[in-house]
């Protein structure tokens, strides 16, 4: 089986979509013995953080052709008007120089319709007689479910969904139910995190720690957590909040309202630092309002940590309230109450963490991931 994995974000970049691609390449190379290639759009990857990792499949950058360079300034305008979507799709079919997708049995696109590149890959799949599948990684009602996005998904042979709520949402948006395949994701973090190394490096000693790992914006609950932390410190003054992830705005005023000794900012951690932070924390907290799946909760469970999630339907489908963690909202009083209860009760933390660990091992494992993709790729 030859697979062409395509995206506007290459697998050696940081973020969830890139991590998903690395996992797919690793598992299908090692366990299924498949070969493949990686295709991505040359013009959209500058400025993203990268890390060095050898990938089993060769990669190809697809440059824009003459038509693509001439029309690109108009793509967003055409995309915003459903009446011009047919014209836009035709333009996108011709926009990139064709290349290495020929000979593939499956072209698997990771992205949305508004990434534009997916329509070119769809055309190349049809020309090659290949099956075309999509992993959209959407945030329902926020990103990835516009009319243009749905137009791409409707033409795919299969669309991989990361939760039942996402699957139902896409069905209601017009994607045929038989095309929608639900995929449980295994942890994508390193399994060898070192808690002691992290605690020594950041001078944490035995202080109780809460880890936030995600985009630092309101949607992910970053603002609410900073406001809640002042209330947490009234009950647990020795607690430390570890902040990790890309900064999406200037929240320095909110940060400064908390004592500096109660915070540790590790910026955007590499894979080793991320695993160490997961191993070292006592609680993982991401009170997100929008999430396509929530792989970081699964990764926290992998390290036996209880989690606190937000109101995103995908997260509440994932986290069993009061069993593997707590549901919360972005009200600082409610959020602080959940965190305080866990910080003051070690036995409860351990019990929830172990329940989460068992859930991860039973439901979110590599075999389930491979089986789902075999179905989407038409191999079952």
Structural description of this entry:
The chain is an alpha/beta fold and 380 residues long. It folds into two domains: 2-186 and 365-376, Glycogen Phosphorylase B (Rossmann fold); 195-363, 3-Layer(aba) Sandwich (Rossmann fold), CATH 3.40.50. The protein is built from 16 helices and 13 strands. It has a seven-stranded parallel β-sheet with strand order 3-2-1-4-5-6-7, sandwiched between helices. A six-stranded parallel β-sheet has the order 10-9-8-11-12-13, with helices on both faces. The longest helix has 18 residues, at 346-363. The protein starts with a strand and ends with a helix.
Key descriptive features of the protein:
Rossmann fold; seven-stranded parallel sheet; 42% helix; six-stranded parallel sheet; 380 residues; alpha/beta; single chain
């Amino acid at each position: 089986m030859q697979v062409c994995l395509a995206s506007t974000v290459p697998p050696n970049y940081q973020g969830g979509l890139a991590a998903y691609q690395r996992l797919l390449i690793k598992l299908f190379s090692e366990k299924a013995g498949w070969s493949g290639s990686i295709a991505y759009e040359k013009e959209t990857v500058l400025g993203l953080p990268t890390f060095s990792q050898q990938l089993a499949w060769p990669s190809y950058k697809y440059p824009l052709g003459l038509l693509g360079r001439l029309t690109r300034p108009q793509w967003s305008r055409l995309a915003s008007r459903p009446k011009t979507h047919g014209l836009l799709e035709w333009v996108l079919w011709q926009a990139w120089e064709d290349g290495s997708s020929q000979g593939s049995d499956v072209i698997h696109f990771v992205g949305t319709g508004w990434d534009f590149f997916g329509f070119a890959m769809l055309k190349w799949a049809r020309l090659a007689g290949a099956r075309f599948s999509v992993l959209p990684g959407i945030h329902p009602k926020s990103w990835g479910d516009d009319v243009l996005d749905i137009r791409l998904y409707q033409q795919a042979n299969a669309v991989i969904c990361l939760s039942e709520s996402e699957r139902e949402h896409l069905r209601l948006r017009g994607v045929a139910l038989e095309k929608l395949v639900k995929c449980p994701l295994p942890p994508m973090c390193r399994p060898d995190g070192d808690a002691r190394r992290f605690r020594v490096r950041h001078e944490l000693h035995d202080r109780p720690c809460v880890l936030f790992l995600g985009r630092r914006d309101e949607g992910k609950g970053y603002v609410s957590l900073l406001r809640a932390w002042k209330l947490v410190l009234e009950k647990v003054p020795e607690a430390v909040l570890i902040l990790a992830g890309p900064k999406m705005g200037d929240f320095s005023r909110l940060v400064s309202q908390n004592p500096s000794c109660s915070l540790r900012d590790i910026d955007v951690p590499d894979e080793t630092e991320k695993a160490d932070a997961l191993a070292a924390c006592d609680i993982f907290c991401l009170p997100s309002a929008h999430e396509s799946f929530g792989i970081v909760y699964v990764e926290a469970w992998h390290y036996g940590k209880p989690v606190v999630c937000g109101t995103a339907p995908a997260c509440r489908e994932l986290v069993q309230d009061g069993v593997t963690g707590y549901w919360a909202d972005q009200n600082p009083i409610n959020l602080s109450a959940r965190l305080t209860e866990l910080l003051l009760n070690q036995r409860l933390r351990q019990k929830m963490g172990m329940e989460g660990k068992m859930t991860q091992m039973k439901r979110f494992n590599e075999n389930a991931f491979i089986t789902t993709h075999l179905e989407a790729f038409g191999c079952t």
